[in-house]
Amino acid sequence: MRFNNFWCYRRILFSKGFAAAVRASRKNLRAFERDRPPVAGPYMAELDVTYQCNCRCQMCQRWRDPRQNELSLAEYRTLAARFDDLRVHQISIAGGEPLMRGDVFAVIQAFADRGMSVNLCTNGMLLEKYQREIRSSGATCVTVSLDGATAECHDGIRGMPGSYRQIMRGIRAFLDRRVKTMPILRVRMTISNRNIREIRAFCRKWKNVADDILLQPVHHCGAAYYTGMDDAFRHLDPATITAQISPTALAQDGYMGRLVQSLAESGSFPHTPCYAGLLMTRIDPWGHVYPCLEQHVCVGSVRANDFAAIWNSARFNRERRRLAANRPCRCWYNNTALIGHFGQLLANTNPQRLWTRFRNQVGQRFQSVFPYKLL
After folding, report:
1. Does the bond joining 228 to the residue before it have cis omega, within 30 degrees of 0?
2. What letter does residue 279 receive in the DSSP assignment?
3. Residue 87 region by backbone torsions, left for phi larger than 0, else alpha for psi between -120 and 50, else beta
4. Per DSSP, what are the bridge partners of residue 263?
């Protein structure tokens, strides 16, 4: 996940599991450089627990998938145990709409109880109904997707009249009873040519309300489920983005800065080292395993084989090598961009220098809030 508002993420960054996962990730990168199998599992696993959805988003076609027989709670508990053995740290529970799955809170708890940081990605329409269950599920973070600063814009993209108002009620209910142990609440706007001029209003609306604000450019992936918008809607004008974020805190966000620069120079997303299959993986609702979040190539199924066996298989390693040697695509998802950035640091920096750089970055974040220096 991305860290804009550093202080709200302190439970993750200073947890024992985070430090261990960073060390394991560095060992994976070193092993890959030496043409050896990974010594640990991925840092992050994105789990799509269902493709059922109560929205009809233009950029996503998952809601059209009629398949049943998703992975059971027992199968997710087995997967959680294996992830624990492999020192996986970050779990993203996504969909579809994961809150449409009746046992989703038990699924979250299966991973949270083993010390993993769990991010629940939701469209927010069921947030009011399940606010208590989410608070007590063990999730570290809840990311609510919104596609605009107004009901007209959001509901038009989502294909669900009244959804914006319903989400607003849910967020207010969720934030109404804040306690120290409740999940971080983030809002994320998937930006396209249809809502790009609402970025500034979106940031102003959620400043000092949500714990963090994220922007996510819409992607097109013909091999997966992001195929709905045509080229005109996917086009992002860098000058418009710059004008929209300039009066907001996101003007200092390196993620957005690199996006704007790359769009201006090449008309596409930034090119960054790919750590698909090394530091991340994705598993669909039926247990198919993909190195890449865009689900280009399936390398196995947790219903047919143990995840560790898949992760360490020759088939998986061939796909890692292929992606490293000749990646045909570019993506700029929040998660992959962050992992790409820190993957470069882990691969190219010795542990002492890495710690010094991390400490200095933390100090800069704290000094923007507190007047004293981090020791």
Report:
1. no
2. T
3. left
4. none
Helix (H, G, I), strand (E, B) or coil at 365: helix
Tokens of 67: 């398949």
Pick the closest to residue 2 from 219, 154, 189 (CA basis): 189
> What angle, rounded to 10 degrees, do the helices at 73-85 and 104-112 form?
20
DSSP designation for 149: S
Dist CA 6 CA 138 (whole Å): 20
pLDDT tens digits, residue range 274-313?
888 999 999 999 999 999 888 778 999 999 999 999 999 9
Q: Which two tokens stand for residue 353?
A: 């220098």
pTM of model > 0.85: yes
Q: Are 182 and 297 in contact (CB under 8 A)?
A: no
> How many C-alpha atoms does 333 have within 13 Å on its Cβ side?
17
* Residue 95 pLDDT level (bands cut at 50, 70, 90): confident
Does residue 326 surpass a pLDDT of 80?
no
Q: What is the DSSP pairing of strand 300-301 with strand 280-283?
A: unpaired
Look-up of token digits 């740290």: 89
Sheet of 44-48, strands arranged across: 212-217, 184-191, 141-146, 117-122, 90-94, 44-48, 280-283, 288-290, 300-301
What whole-number distance in Å separates Cα of residue 342 and Cα of residue 127?
32
Q: Which pairing describes strands 212-217 and 300-301: parallel, antiparallel, or unpaired?
A: unpaired
Helix, strand or coil, per DSSP, at residue 249: helix
For residue 75, the model assigns a pLDDT of: 98
Q: Map 180-247 to HEC letters.
A: CCCCEEEEEEEECCCCHHHHHHHHHHHCCCCCEEEEEECCCECCCCECCCCHHHHCCCHHHHHHHHCC
